[in-house]
C-alpha cells in the first residue's frame, strides 16, 4: 500500500508544473547542443530543418544534448526528466500540444523522443521505431552527429509532418522483440495522461461543486458556475479567465476574474509557445 501511494505521489509530482525549472535555457535556435555532440555543419542543417518544419506546419521541435541528467537535481528517471524539460520550456503550440523534443544524454547512454500531449499512442510506436532503427545503433557506435541528424529527419517526416496533415500514424510490421517496448511505452503514456487529466479537470470539478452551495439571495441549491478565457497564458505571461456564477432560481449573479498561471518555460531564446507533454514518446538505451 505504501509503495503504491509513493508511486502515485511521485507521478503527480513529475506531472505538476515546474515552479523552479533547474534546467538550462534553450538556445536561440531549435538546437541546444550543450554536450557538444554535433558538428557545426550538422547543427546548421538541423536548425534549418526544424525552422522549415515550423514554418511549413507550425510544429515546434527541439534537439537537446546534455552530458548527463545527473547534473540537474533532483535526479529523476529519463522519462520524467524529459517531460519536465519539455514542459519547462513549453515546446509546441499550447492549443494543439504538438511539440517534439529529441533528448540525448551520452554519459547516461540514454536518449528519448518526447511527444506533446496532442499525439496519440500510435505515434509513440513510430517514435520507438525511430529510436531503435536510427538513434541507438548510431549512438552505440559513437556516431552522435549523424544519428541525431538522420533520426530527427525521420521524426520530422514520419511524425511531425504526418500529424500536421491529420494523417493516422503509419502502420509498422511486427518485428521480434518489439512488443515489450511498445507495451511499456503505451502504459507509461496512459499513466501520465490520466494524471494530466485529473489536473485538467480539477477546475471543472470545482465548478460543479459550486452547484452544491446555497444561493446567497434565495437560499436554494441552484447555483451554476462557468468560466471563459479572456487572455490566454503564454510563456512567462499569465492569462486571465472570467468566472461567472448565476442562480437558476433567481436573478443572483456574481462575476470575477481569475489569474491563469504562465507556462513553466524559463530562460531566453528558443521562442517556444507554451505547449505541454503528458509523457508520450519513446526511450532508448545503449
Automatic annotation (TrEMBL):
Annotated ranges, domain TPM: 31-157
- Which residues fall in a coiled-coil region? none
Matches recorded under Pfam families? TPM_phosphatase
List residues traversing the bilayer: 183-201
Entry's Gene3D superfamilies?
Answer: 3.10.310.50
For region Disordered, the annotated ranges are 254-286
Q: Where is the composition biased (Gly residues)?
A: 264-286
Q: Looking at the record's lineage, which domain of life comes first?
A: Bacteria
Keyword Signal set for record? yes
Alphabetical keyword list: Membrane, Signal, Transmembrane, Transmembrane helix
Q: Which residues form the signal peptide?
A: 1-20
- PANTHER family assigned to the protein according to its UniProt record, in alphabetical order: UPF0603 PROTEIN YGCG (PTHR30373)
- The name under which this protein is listed is TPM domain-containing protein
Q: Which organism is it from?
A: Albidovulum denitrificans
